[in-house]
Input
Amino acid sequence: MEVKQFMNQIESSKDLVGIGMIINEEQDGEVRKAKGVSHVIIRHSPTGMEVKLPFDAVKQTDWETLYGVMTGRREPAVLQHMTRVVGYYSKIENWNPSKIGELYDRQKGDYQLKDQK
Output
């Protein structure tokens, strides 16, 4: 689902309220630079439950599944991404940028050796 479409769905919902975003930052000397939004925090008004959703999961998941997680009708396990890059299955949400880059490189499937002349 597109992020803009997701935000429009939240705004038009009577039960869901967007209450915040988590911004990735990197340290460059003494200056912190924003690298983009990584998560959005949504509150389900009737229950008061708050859910932190990674934007990557929002982009890869349909509205019905997201709505089920945000309202407590579905387990958030459907949004967790697991991979075996490190030799065992692990959640990628807490990985550093280098390890995520390695994962994306492996997903491209470009394993050919380059000619060195």
